[in-house]
Design a protein that fits this description.
- This is NADH dehydrogenase.
- GO terms for molecular function: NAD(P)H dehydrogenase (quinone) activity.
- Residues 5-319 form the FAD/NAD(P)-binding domain.
- Belongs to the NADH dehydrogenase family.
- With 396 residues, the protein is an alpha/beta fold.
- It folds into two domains: 5-109 and 261-344, FAD/NAD(P)-binding domain (3-Layer(bba) Sandwich); 119-258, FAD/NAD(P)-binding domain, CATH 3.50.50.60.
- It has helices at residues 13-25, 49-53, 65-68, 119-122, 129-148, 165-185, 209-221, 263-267, 312-330, 366-392, and strands at residues 5-9, 32-37, 41-43, 62-64, 74-78, 81-85, 90-93, 96-99, 102-105, 110-111, 157-161, 193-198, 224-228, 232-236, 239-242, 246-249, 252-255, 259-260, 277-278, 284-285, 288-293, 298-299, 345-348, 354-358, 361-364.
- The strands form eight sheets. A six-stranded mixed β-sheet has the order 5-2-1-9-21-20, covered by helices on one side. A four-stranded parallel β-sheet has the order 13-12-11-17. Strands 6-7-8 form a three-stranded antiparallel β-sheet.
- Strand 14 and strand 15 (239-242) form a beta hairpin.
- Helix 1 (13-25) runs parallel beside helix 9 (312-330).
- Bound molecules: flavin-adenine dinucleotide (FAD) and nicotinamide-adenine-dinucleotide.
Length: 396
Amino acid sequence: SNIPKIVILGAGYGGVLTALRLQKELNYNEADVTLVNKHDYHYFTTHLHMPAAGTDKTENARVSISKLIDEFKIDFVKSTVVQIRTQDKKVILEDGTLSYDYLVIGLGGEPETFGIPGMLEYAMNIRSINSVRLIREHIEYQFARFKREPHRTDYLTFVVGGAGFTGIEFVGELADRLPELCKQNDVDPSLVKLYNIEAAPTALPGFDPELVEYAMQVLTKKGVTFKIGCPIKECTPDGVIVGDNEEIKAATVIWAAGVRGNRLIEEAGIEVMRGRVKVDESLRAPGHENIYVVGDNSLMFNPEGRPYPPTAQIAMQQGVVCAHNLVASIRNQPLKKFEFKNKGTVASLGKGEAIGLAFGKKYKGGVAALLKKAIDIRYLYIIGGIPLVVKKGKFL
Ligand code: FAD
Ligand code: NAD
């Protein structure tokens, strides 16, 4: 048929928003839309620090894709993309091939290890449902192991690399969970160590210094030991080597020190910087009029020339504009320019505590924690309406 084919790779924040908007804006038979994702569920990356630490159920961090999209309007294919072939407009899946006229790439980021020895092999990452299941089980297992080998205090030492928002949110949750695990396993809490190790001269580099200080106070009180200005140089089976060759023996190392784009994009010959595509103002890849890139796979600069950080917030806004521009292309109408509207940043510090900058104001403590909850609920409402809010929104 002559109906244009749109293929969306990845059902993350960018891919789902693109699909939902296309489903709303396209007329009957105006395009064939296919959404491809590794899993048959969409997960809330922004929630993953909780199931990783074991302070919330994994189920609350995901929703089945069939509950989000209208499968009469969008074909969903559960498969893993293995190659993007721009020369013949094909996407190779682990179990098949798709051809496209328009492609949307929203495969999300991968952990950036900066080539640090041992990091890929020995550290875990907060990236997906499967990766956080592993972290949670691993942490619980260390307590059981320690009961059998009580001289091994390294089983009770937890290292989190990077004090960006991911590292900070995770140590907040883990600091809440560790005392519970001590109680359940009859372990003396004074034997447990939780380190958050940051290379830059401050935690949350670039964020409001007053809020950073507040966050560090709250977390320190909960038992987190910060090592700031102290790069992790190596990860080994026994722990990490930091700063001036100091060794910290730890059976658990979580690497939360950065994201890069997806390797499939550079392998496709599309120009990238650290795996991210410097898209044009309409969100297209340079030299590829028919390829759009959204979310962590894209790279955009603010008017001062600094890159926007890769967030769910920007991925969602890009999804909306990407869908608009796909429809406009098909209808031969002019494309829209993407302009990021920063709604602010709120980061949780564990139960009942958070910090945030929004509406030009600073928030901390319980008020910020409520704001965080409101943001989470708003997202559930945007993608799944009231039913999803009722099902996954935590009200207590
Ligand atoms: P993702 O959401 O990562 O989705 C990518 C999708 O592609 C996934 O479904 C994946 O399964 C799929 N996929 C990957 N590879 C393949 C393949 N080869 N084949 C098929 N499918 C594939 N941002 C905020 O704005 N606010 C927050 O509060 C916030 N909190 C965060 C908390 C944590 C713990 C973390 C880790 C991140 C947080 N972020 C937050 C950042 C935000 O989660 C990301 O920027 C966002 O998820 C990017 O969306 P995306 O659509 O690019 O990709
Ligand atoms: P990041 O890149 O923002 O932070 C990584 C941190 O690790 C940096 O502070 C960096 O200096 C540090 N680091 C790098 N190398 C190191 C080393 N060798 N040793 C020790 N520390 C090292 O990554 P992130 O925290 O995963 O965040 C990724 C994106 O997701 C960001 O855009 C962030 O804004 C967003 N995010 C937002 C929220 C929120 O809004 N609540 C939560 C999580 C993530």
